[in-house]
Amino acid sequence: MNPDASTIAAGAPIEVDLSPVAEGQDIKVFWRGKPIYISHRTKKQIEEARAVNVASLPDPQSDEARVKSGHDQWLVVIGICTHLGCIPIAHEGNYDGFFCPCHGSQYDTSGRIRQGPAPANLAVPPYQFVSDTKIQIG
Known about the structure:
The protein is mainly β. The chain has helices spanning 5-11, 43-51; strands at 14-17, 26-31, 34-40, 74-78, 89-92, 97-100, 105-107, 113-115, 127-131, 134-137.
């Protein structure tokens, strides 16, 4: 009566080594069948994200609330558009964040919705740093 191995694996946490990810680069991994974008943000991207007036956002959330303290350069988001579930493209759009070409939603470098029909920010999955160069998602 125990779940099979594929069922266990589908919900199991995954570890991701961040050491090969260069500054300014994004990688995509999969967790629970969902695409997860991991962005190694530049100082400029972080400064731009933090300069935004949070009250002006459709789904107000500070950049600091979307990253782990002390690891501000790493953004981890579920790469599913909050409009209709499409997969946005990284480093595209007017905000150098994520762009969903299906209906035009645009997210900034913090994964916050800035323009288009999406009602909410890209979700941040549960994750933690297990070392300076490794995270566990899930």
